[in-house]
Amino acid sequence: MTHLTILAFALVSFIGIATPGPTVLLALTNGSKFGIRTASYGMAGAVLSDFVLIGAVALGLGALLAASEFWFSVVKWIGVGYLTFLGIMLLRSKGTLDVVHTDVSISTLPSARLVFLKSFFVAITNPKGYLFFSAFLPQFVVPELPQFPQYLALAVTFALIDLAVMFGYAILGSRAVRLLKKQGALWLDRLCGGALLALAGSLAFYRRAST
Which of 176, 201, 199, 171 is nearest to 186 (CA)? Predict the structure, then answer.
């Protein structure tokens, strides 16, 4: 695997990651609602999921989901249900400014574990991630060379780009909410909640490619 291969992988990965998906939207909302420090726990959960997804693909789980309608459906509907739950919670939100700009006890903020697990769970219950990596990663892996170091290099590259993009979205959310009044912050939650529901809907209609 050459540096040019890694660079090409990084470029394509950046384009895919920068397009808002569930974990990116969570970084945006966590940044606006709780600040960068709390949002960073969600980013850590998403980064861990990158390694889990790529590791699973390297071990053949992506191929299993591509071949099995049953297991594909199980993972898909768990993901649909969780995205729907998160979307509804945001739609029912009363805005983010109360948390960010008032003197509240630290106990009113979600635990680091909850924020971490929310982003992690969103990612690993999306079968599109497994299928995407199954189709995407082998194009950058040289079959004649040892597989593990190559998948590890791709996983680290992808995770670093994912972290940078999520950090940018979290900063955007944190800065945006400071410029918005209460009603504007409310509509930011509505927008992100609607986007998560739209992603849940697209996942519900997503079909395993026929073999």
Answer: 176
